Amino acid sequence: MAPTAAYDEIADWYETEFLARAAGAGDPLNLGGLLRDLLGEGRGTCLEIGCGTGVHAALVRELGWTPMGVDLSGGMLGHARGRLPVARADAERLPLRDGSVPAVIAMMVHTDMPGYPAVLREAARVLRPGGTFVHIGVHPCFCGGFADFSDPEAAVIRPGYLDSGYWTKESWTNDGVRAKVGATHRPLPELLHAFLDAGLHLTRFAEGTAPTPIILAVKATKPA
After folding, report:
1. Which domains are assigned to the chain?
2. Which DSSP category does 68 fall into?
3. What is the dihedral of CA 186, 188, 194, 195, to 10 degrees?
């Protein structure tokens, strides 16, 4: 994951300013709609990897699941504890037994995790056979230092998209999380192959926002 201190340092800003601004805008990235559609209603534990301040727990609970979260940042978890049960843990070494949960979600965190392929393997390990994994994150093709959003009607993709595994704080805005803590970039084929290499079966896809899809959502299952 991103260095712990980076998120510890911005935890209060994230909770009191960034989330408040997002709430006032009415979920402009449609994260709630995508999660509702891909996770769906269910029962049992839904583990959120990289839960941050726990803002998605209410919707997970509304869908019938029992939310539980893990994150590496103590500062972020300080805000999450009032929203769901949490544990401080490395996403590449989850403190859960094999096949112990029916659902796992990762919300807007894969760019925070340089070892995301290992995170996907851990998600597959802790999922029950037939269990659901939902990934919702920034779209590799349209979000990154290479994406120029100077024109609100279109994104210009400059050199850098095809490069893999690099960390950068370059962003189209200096008012967001990425400009503060940076992000890891992987091209789309590499990201999707990481799901397959983890043994997950890809079942559904969605893209969010217009005219340029800033969000990519993936639903996968663990083979029975």
Report:
1. 4-221 (3.40.50.150)
2. E
3. 140
